[in-house]
Design goal:
The complex is a heterodimer. Chain A is mostly beta strands. Chain A is 0% helix and 54% strand. Chain A has strands at residues 5-7, 11-12, 25-29, 34-41, 44-51, 57-63, 76-83, 88-94, 97-102, 108-113, 127-133, 137-142, 147-151, 160-165, 172-177, 189-193, 198-202, 208-213, 220-226, 229-234, 238-243, 249-254, 260-266, 271-276, 280-289, 294-304, 310-315, 322-327, 332-338. Chain B has helices at residues 6-29, 39-60, 63-69, 78-89, 98-118, 124-139, 144-161, 166-179, 188-192, 279-289, 293-307, 330-339, 351-356, 361-372, 378-393, and strands spanning 94-95, 186-187, 207-209, 219-223, 229-234, 240-242, 273-274, 322-323. The two termini of chain B are 27 Å apart. Classes of the chains: A mainly beta, B mainly alpha. Chain A: One of its GO terms (biological process) is cilium assembly.
Chain lengths: 339, 394
């Protein structure tokens, strides 16, 4: 009985990972045989680049931007790479605003400040939820429920705010774009919020709301969109699969014993990765049957990261051959590869 | 992140402080090698313990202080919060040496970290606070003025926190986890109970009841387009979970169900800590603590507003006070002070910042208000000086 995955050598990071949703982002750079990993710790972001031969790693750290030194700390909520046809950008979302960097983190190309009130209010202010959509959009969610749509040129810093989508009434938790690569899918993006409400969008000069799936008063902390199917992970530990455009529920899985913190899909193989505070990372397989318009999910593999509340888990490649995991208070990125 | 975090953190740390002090005061009240002498002497010691607890609780639930505490605001740094608790711990005839205060704060913090981490649902943070509150209420049940302040606080907690969503509670929890990040001080009672590993990390069981609202992991259900279930099957979860317990009560009185936040100490379970073996991770601890000068000043302003409502230190020298030792002997306490690793120090508030504050309008006003509350005029100046002196000492 051989295990599907085995543990590889971990990547050490300078700071431990903070307990934030989706706290691991991976960028695979095939031409340079490198993979970048990014992890958030309070107000800093650690970027580790690892060569595929396992011989070289390098580190860089980015800080949240503070326009005014006298103000209080600006904690980072999320960091994620946005892959567009013309360029890759690293996006950081914090309590103060949104920073966009060239993919290696060397140059900041854009800064967008959030409206922060003079004195703190009961309603938190921050940006969270990042998605690269189609050819030229990067969408970022806000604590207010708004979604900022940025128009990204093929190069340079002339990034503009195209529109603000105001459909969600509660804090955005996560957003995802269609990752199958198929041009046939009608839905381009899905956004999720603290009540579990899911909005399905079509991109364009004006984004169009295709469908709104009402939540059941439980936060949806992580969401993916693949071949027109929304995969949503909730605070109850449940995973649900919906047909994006119609809202039809395909499947419901009592997947974890605690709050789900991260989901990821390997688009070429249909493998799904889920990770939660319960210390478990689980690998599932999604199958689409177009004839019967059904989606099925089957369980493939479990990995228990002892005494760790997992906060990030991402595949390192499109087939799901390898994945990385981060946990609260852990100063390493644990890696697993298929046996 | 969440502007609603401070009250829960304060009540958690305060609650733990009271458990620890109560246990130490009881332990110290009966000299081990002496039999009970004159009954009146033993009574006097018991009265002192109750007086110390009452004084601290009265200060903690001071109306003006709580008003400031419950305002929406970002969480304070560890340094700033330590300053508040130093003041609280000295709000009575009790005296603590530096080493004992350090140890007290270590224990308080690790206990709170444990509670936040192990909370089954983020919303259960409120139940943990209620466990602390219930214990505090029990300590002052014979003192009506303080009791009514405690009851007011219950009402405020219920009013502010019960409408919050699960996501908002998780944000509070995430904010707290950043506060406790990289702290791995080993606590003897946790090690003995096997809830903490020898590397200082807490044990996260993959067994036991699931949180209320969660199902035991195992079931996959597939549906047809018309909503009918087409198939269901099970998978191996790798854990041994059982169904959720009933939810705890969020009323003023009630069964809280969860045990996190209840008193884990007793006279037979002494309070001890180990400092060694955590240096690698604790060094990272201080990186988060470091704040540049301008930030320290902003925080001092917030602190002064908060502490403006606290009672001042009682007059008198260390001799007239009742010294409490968090260690078994005076020698051990002295030894702990000498050998405390630098990276575990709670930091020193920059002296330059404290001199600047003399000219700060906000601070002066508060210190002015503060002194007006006093009856004997000569003491007015010394209270302001006490505040500065305490900052300097940090």
């Amino acid at each position: 009985l051989s295990k599907m995955y085995h543990k590889e050598k971990s990547l050490q990071i300078k700071n431990s990972a903070s307990a934030l949703y989706n706290n691991l982002s991976v960028l695979r750079i095939a031409p340079r045989s490198l993979t970048y990993f990014t992890v958030v710790h309070a107000n800093t972001v650690s970027i580790v680049s690892a060569s595929w031969d396992g011989l070289n790693t390098s580190h860089r750290q980015l800080q949240s931007k503070e326009p005014n030194v006298a103000t209080s700390n600006s904690l980072i909520m999320q960091a994620a790479w946005c892959v567009l046809p013309s360029r890759d950008l690293l996006v950081l979302t914090s309590q103060k605003g949104i920073q966009m960097y060239e993919s290696d983190g060397s140059i900041m190309v854009y800064w967008h400040a959030l409206d922060t009130p003079e004195t703190a209010t009961a309603q938190a202010v921050f940006a969270r939820g990042i998605a690269a959509v189609r050819e030229n959009y990067i969408c970022v969610g806000e604590a207010s429920g708004g979604i900022l749509v940025f128009d990204i040129p093929s190069k340079g810093g002339n990034i503009t705010l195209s529109e603000v989508l105001e459909e969600h009434k509660e804090s955005i938790t996560d957003m995802a774009s269609e990752c199958s690569g198929s041009q046939e899918c009608i839905a381009d993006m899905v956004s999720a919020d603290d009540t579990g409400t899911l909005c399905v969008w079509k991109s364009g000069e004006e984004f169009q709301l295709l469908n709104k799936i009402t939540g059941f008063d439980m936060s949806c902390s992580s969401v993916k969109l693949w071949k027109g199917t929304v995969v949503a992970g909730y605070g109850t530990g449940q995973i649900r699969l919906y047909e994006a455009v119609t809202g039809i529920l395909h499947a419901e899985v009592n997947a974890h014993a605690r709050w789900i913190y991260s989901l990821d899909i390997a688009p070429f193989s249909g493998l799904l990765l889920s990770a939660a505070e319960d210390s478990f990372v689980r690998v599932w397989h999604l199958t689409m049957t177009p004839e019967s318009n059904t989606v099925e999910i089957s369980h493939m593999y479990n990995e228990c990261v002892t005494d760790t509340q997992i906060c990030g888990a991402k595949f390192c490649d499109g087939d799901g051959y390898a994945f990385g995991v981060t946990g609260y208070d852990l100063s390493e990125i644990i890696r697993y590869t298929q046996s | 992140m969440s502007s609603r975090t401070l009250p829960l953190l304060f009540l958690g740390l305060g609650g733990e402080m009271l458990y620890i002090l109560d246990q130490r005061l009881r332990a110290q009240s009966i000299p081990p090698d002496k039999a009970r002498k004159v009954s009146s002497e033993a009574d006097w010691i018991e009265k002192d313990r109750r007086r110390v607890m009452n004084d601290i609780i009265t200060t903690m639930f001071n109306k003006k202080f709580l008003e400031e505490l419950f305002k929406p605001q970002e969480l304070y740094s560890k340094k700033a919060l330590r300053t508040v608790f130093d003041r609280l711990a000295h709000a009575s005839i009790m005296r603590l040496n530096q080493a004992s205060m350090d140890k007290l704060y270590d224990l308080m913090t690790m206990a709170c970290k444990y509670q936040v981490l192990l909370c089954p649902r983020p919303k259960d943070l409120l139940l943990v606070s209620f466990n602390h509150m219930d214990a505090i209420k029990d300590l002052v049940k014979e003192a009506p003025p303080i009791l009514s302040q405690v009851d007011d606080t219950y009402r405020q907690l219920i009013e502010i926190y019960t409408p919050l969503s699960s996501g908002e509670f998780q944000l509070i929890r995430q904010t707290l986890l950043i506060f406790f990040q990289d702290m791995h001080i080993r606590v003897s009672i946790f090690l003995k109970d096997k809830v903490q590993n020898s590397n200082g990390r807490f044990v996260l069981p993959t067994s036991g009841p699931v949180p209320h609202g969660t199902q035991v992991p195992s079931l996959i259900r597939l549906f047809r387009c018309n909503g009918e279930e087409s198939r269901r099957f099970q998978f191996q979860s790798g854990g041994t979970y059982s169904s959720a317990l009933r939810p705890g009560s969020l009323e003023m009185f009630g069964d809280r169900v969860i045990k996190l936040g209840t008193n884990m100490y007793s006279v037979s379970r002494p309070v001890e800590t180990h400092m060694s073996g955590t240096s690698k991770n604790s060094a990272q601890n201080t990186k988060v603590n470091t704040t540049p000068n301008p930030l320290a000043k902003e925080e001092l302003n917030m602190l002064a507003r908060l502490m403006g409502g606290l009672e001042g230190q009682k007059p008198g020298s260390a001799d007239s006070g009742f010294r409490v030792n968090l260690f078994a002997t005076d020698e051990e306490e002295e030894e702990a002070l000498m050998s405390r690793p630098d990276e575990l120090s709670y930091g020193v508030l920059n002296i330059q910042a404290t001199k600047d504050q003399q000219s700060d309008a906000t601070l002066s006003r508060i210190m002015g208000e503060f002194s007006e509350q006093d009856d004997p005029a000569p003491r007015a100046c010394s209270k302001g000086d006490d505040l500065l002196a305490m900052m300097d000492m940090m």
